[in-house]
Amino acid sequence: MPFNSFAFLYLLAVTFVIYYSKWFAKAQVVVLIVASLVFYAHENFVLLALLLFSAAVNITTSYRIVYGDPKHRRLIAVTGVVVNLAALSFFKYSRLFAHTLLSDDSSIAEFLINIPLPIGISFFTFEGISLLIDVWKERHIEAKKIIALSILEHARNTLFFISFFPHLIAGPILKAHDFFPQIGTKYFKNINWESAFKSIVTGYFLKMVVADNLKNFTFWIVYPFFEGQSTATLISLLFGYSIQIFADFAGYSLIAIGLAKLFGYQFQDNFNFPYISTSFREFWKRWHISLSTFLMEYLYFPLGGNRKGKIRTYFNLMVTMILGGLWHGAAWSYAVWGFVHGSALAVERALSDKINLKPRKLISFIQGLFVFLFVTFAWLLFKLPDFSHVTKYINAIATNTDLETNTVMVVSILIYSSPVVLYHVLYLMRVPTVVKLVQRVSYVPYGVMLFLIVTNSGSSGSFIYFQF
To answer: Among the four 52, 162, 196, 308, which has the fewest Cβ within 10 Å?
Structure first.
């Protein structure tokens, strides 16, 4: 059920009224669980069984880690993580395994290829793993603060943690130690209306006005249609897609954060002006923050991080980024995307030990431009999962210099990209007088965004990260 659908707005309104009704004050979590299950089942009722299975596995194993036989804690934790990853692998990567290892006309390959991809499985699987690792790592007394003694209460809390609809489909990825302490009775009077309003309006604007309008042009980044476009048009299309994927995913995250605030819950920020980054390390601290921190806490650090020498550090970095790439999709192009970013991080780390550039404005600008161009070209691996199409697109940029530029398309992309560019530029400048002026008239841009949402939204489309 997309956030930009009338069905969702109706579900949200009904849930909100019931949630803060005095008759349901002691059943608020149950209200949100029911709403979340309806939200998920709207897409495919049958696949709701997988969500419930995932919740059941994590409820049982996390409870036994804390209250079961201490001798078996590690075994139970490992078993729970393995079951989570097995379910993720079966439903998400069966097609990749079939295409890679089997003949397409075999019965087994046909079966694997036709396995449906449950929406949001990458997100709720990682959250289940977060719960298991958190309670296993914590001391017994600390773990009891997360895991209730009553199995029914724990089951309710865990199902709520995994299924809460604002983050269920595309994050932000929640961590158990951040979310469980927040569970409790919420009051209408405590809603931070201004913060929720700003997050939701900005999110819908980025999605419906920026991303949905840009997708009406960036659909040309499909083989063989892009081969007939000029170099300038191809570059503008790639720039537009880079802006689109940010606006689409940051928009979703802001809507999710705002919706959670309406119900009294806090999610971490998922984006922090990523396109002003002057290094790849900085970029990954600003882009998809919930995934970056998850991979760092639950994969990079357990592998040894940077504590076991340079060679092991680079190995850990590459493994983390390649697996992070595959998390995004069941195609080798995503692994290549992770390898490309991992290589960039590794080279940057190696050079930073030998070259100490002074933080001058010109150098920072050049570094920031290079990082943006690198990241933008790497998005081709998202848009074109067939790696051969990526090479053909780059070849077309190099060879189509004599073709006529589609001026209307280029100008339209620049216009719809301008809010995101301005968004980053204003943050980068942060001139005190400008900041004060913006704060005084902060209602104006939100009024403008609301107006544009109503009058200039693009054709409705699903969020890009729904496929992950």
So the answer is: 308
* Tens digits of residue pLDDT in 88-130: 988 888 888 887 777 767 888 778 778 888 888 888 999 999 9
Identify the H or E element spanning 312: helix 310-328
Q: What's the half-sphere exposure (Cβ side, CA atoms, 13 Å) at 395?
A: 9
> Which position among 328, 341, 389, 424 bears the catalytic label?
328
Has 328 been annotated as catalytic?
Answer: yes
Residue 421's CB: how many other CB atoms inside 10 A? 13
Cα(first)–Cα(last) distance of the chain, in Å?
A: 15
pTM of the model: 0.91
Burial class (CB in 10 A: 0-12, 13-18, 19+), 467: middle
Please tell me what DSSP assigns to residue 181.
Answer: G
pLDDT digits (tens, 9 = 90+) for 382-405: 888 888 899 999 999 999 988 888
User: Which ranges constitute the DSSP H helices of 121-230?
Assistant: 121-137, 140-143, 151-163, 165-168, 176-179, 193-204, 212-218
Rounded to 5°, the CA angle 28-29-35 comes to 90
What is the Cα–Cα distance from 95 to 112, expressed in whole angstroms?
Answer: 6
Give yes or no for a contact between 298 and 129, defined as CB atoms under 8 angstroms apart: yes
